[in-house]
């Protein structure tokens, strides 16, 4: 039972290029979360998606960043016209459909994609 | 709103020392509480969780008790090992605010032989 798969694990881009990060959730998981981790900093929420829906994108920068989770295929975090400040580790996490209110869901994380902008 | 506050790091301990990492939270509803651990170069892994007040989560010698009266979920281990060196994140999820997860800033732990 494969876990959350992220690729690429490492990505190097020059300023102004585009970065695409992919995330395949665990089997049976329909919710995907993206987080960014800057060096020596904590985890910053970016976006929460279900299939074909963005539920909460309050952590996404207003420009250059977008995310999708299509009906088929992985979730994709896209960063256009990258700048050096985008260099970070980007983590994807998934969870199953939320059950009864008394239940607790758990996030399962991927190993991350480390973006370096030259 | 919802938030998690963790003690500042980094924390450095000798092997077999007692560990406490403080975590307090604010929540609008009845949250579930979690500790995640991140080893160098890896993603976060669930360490333990508690879903209601007075629950104790435990795993690998680590424990944390959900204290509603003090809104805390402190992580403890009686005797740390070098292999426990990692970053520890406290987190909460709250169904009331739409299935969202909130993480603390993380506490780096280094255990020296």
Topology:
The complex is a heterodimer of chains A (118) and B (113).
Chain A: E1 5-7, E2 10-13, E3 19-24, E4 31-37, E5 43-50, E6 53-56, E7 65-68, E8 75-79, E9 88-95, E10 108-109, E11 113-117
Parallel strand pairs in A: 2-11
Antiparallel strand pairs in A: 1-3, 3-8, 4-5, 4-9, 5-6, 7-8, 9-10, 9-11
Chain B: E1 3-6, E2 11-14, E3 19-21, E4 23-26, E5 32-38, E6 44-50, E7 56-59, E8 62-65, E9 75-77, E10 86-94, E11 100-103, E12 107-112
Parallel strand pairs in B: 2-12
Antiparallel strand pairs in B: 1-4, 3-9, 5-6, 5-10, 7-8, 8-9, 10-11, 10-12
What this model shows, in words?
The complex is a heterodimer of chains A (about 120) and B (about 110). By secondary structure, chain A is mainly β. The radius of gyration of chain A is 14 Å and the shape is globular. In chain A, strands 2, 4, 5, 6, 9, 10 and 11 form a 7-stranded mixed sheet that branches. In chain A, strands 1-3-8-7 form a 4-stranded antiparallel sheet, with no helix packed on it. In chain A, about 35% of the residues are buried. The model of chain A has no long low-confidence stretch (mean pLDDT about 90). Chain A has strands at about 5, 10-15, 20-25, 30-35, 45-50, 55, 65-70, 75-80, 90-95, 110, 115. Helix content of chain A is about 0%, strand content about 45%. In chain A, a hairpin with a 6-residue loop joins strand 7 (about 65-70) and strand 8 (about 75-80). With about 110 residues, chain B is mostly beta strands. Chain B is about 0% helix and about 50% strand. Chain B is built from no helices and 12 strands. In chain B, the strands form 3 sheets. In chain B, strands 2, 5, 6, 10, 11 and 12 form a 6-stranded mixed sheet that branches. Chain B has a 4-stranded antiparallel sheet with strand order 3-9-8-7, with no helix packed on it. Chain B has a two-stranded antiparallel sheet with strand order 1-4. The interface between A and B is medium-sized, with 27 and 23 residues.
